[in-house]
Design a protein that fits this description.
Layout lengths: L4 H4 L2 H4 L43 H11 L6 E4 L2 H12 L6 E4 L6 H8 L3 E4 L10 H7 L4 E7 L11 H10 L3 E5 L21 E6 L12 E4 L2 H10 L7 H10 L3 H22 L5 E4 L6 E6 L2 H10 L5 E2 L9 E5 L3 H16 L1
Parallel strand pairs: 2-3, 2-4, 4-5, 5-6
Antiparallel strand pairs: 1-7, 6-7, 8-9, 9-11, 10-11
Helix pairs in contact: 4-5, 10-12
């Protein structure tokens, strides 16, 4: 199906003249900056942060480009993936008119952002196997459907969505298909960023919060066509990624080997935790995981959850989420944390 970005964009965004920051208005090198009303004396810190950061984060994007194999013009950096999600709603969805399709159970911020922007959500439940109900999605699409959100590996279920189903959506939908790959580093499936040149309506979200261990600096990534990334850059605040976060990201991105070691260890720990959990008689089922967490169905999920809290272990109660009834979501921790988890659950069994 033909994709036309101009028809998809809100008219006010199509005609938007973005804010031009002080750093956008000159080219080349400079040694004296008297343009942005900064404090030229420095900062009351060991490191100076008195200058505004690079509004386009070129150094960080250059490193990401080498790691991800994606050209810099196809990369957007946001204040967490949440900023990219919010921009998608603001740029493409007319409040009170347009709608998006969500596939629950899924990441909750899609719906929150839709509600903030007064955009209708059409919810098509995943199948009992946590895969896309393709017929349901096809029936839900109408002339005002702008975006389909697919989380894969999915949160909170931890499984990957069938790749062929996602490709079918992208190829047959005239709006945007957003594939959220926050947990892709732990998955056996390959990333969809390799498909960007093939699909003009594909947006892939990733993050530095999970495998890269940088949740505290809030940096999310969106990968898409150059024309879609240009839209993101028009809509975002001029300095959306602060200088401290950019510097820390640059430092972290130089340590790929460390991150890869952690990924291997977490996957190993995940399998060990699963093998211990299934020995417990109150554990009914564990969804096959492609993430750094597992969804565990239990006989008494609320009782288990409260017992863990009372013993200083915090998990996520998902037992009231449709299709996740009776389930707790458990992040894979360090070996020591995982042993403590299993021992505490064994103690619960005897309590």
């Amino acid at each position: 199906m033909e994709f036309d970005l101009k028809k998809l964009l809100r008219t006010n965004i199509l005609n938007l003249v973005p804010y031009s920051s002080a750093r956008d208005e000159y080219k080349g090198e400079a040694s004296v900056f008297l343009d942005a009303n900064e404090n030229s004396y420095g900062s009351p810190l060991s490191r100076n942060y008195n200058r505004y950061p690079d509004p386009m984060q070129q150094a960080v994007k250059a490193k990401l480009s080498l790691i991800k194999g994606v050209p810099v013009p196809n990369i957007f950096l946001g204040n967490g993936s949440d900023e990219a999600i919010d921009i998608l709603f603001r740029a493409f969805c007319r409040p009170g008119i347009d709608n998006v399709i969500l596939l629950p159970p899924t990441y909750g911020m899609y719906e929150v952002s839709a509600n903030i922007n007064d955009v209708q959500t059409k919810k098509i439940l995943l199948t009992p196997e946590y895969q896309i109900d393709m017929e349901g999605v096809a029936e839900a699409i109408d002339e005002h459907t702008k975006i389909i959100f697919v989380c894969s590996p999915n949160n909170p279920t931890a499984n990957s969505i069938n790749r062929s189903d996602i490709e079918t959506l992208i190829a047959n939908f005239s709006g945007l298909v957003v594939v959220d790959e926050a947990y892709i580093n732990y998955s056996r499936q390959k990333t969809f960023i390799q498909e960007l040149t093939e699909y003009g309506n594909l947006v892939v979200l990733q993050t530095l919060s999970k495998a890269w261990g940088l949740a505290g600096i809030r940096m999310g990534m969106a990968f898409a066509s150059e024309e879609i990334i240009e839209v993101f850059n028009k809509v975002k605040p001029p300095y959306n990624i602060n200088e401290a976060s950019q510097q820390l990201a640059l430092e972290a991105l130089s340590n790929v080997d460390q991150v890869n070691d952690w990924i291997r260890e977490i996957i190993l720990q995940r399998e060990q935790v699963i093998s211990k959990l299934i020995e417990l008689p109150f554990v009914l089922n564990i969804v096959p995981s492609d993430a750094n967490f597992i969804l565990v169905k239990m006989v008494d999920p609320l009782g288990v959850y409260k017992y863990l809290v009372d013993n200083g272990i915090i998990t996520r109660d998902r037992s009231k989420v449709q299709l996740c009834e009776g389930c707790i979501r458990i992040t894979i921790g360090t070996p020591e944390e995982n042993v403590l988890l299993i021992n505490t659950l064994r103690a619960y069994l005897k309590s």
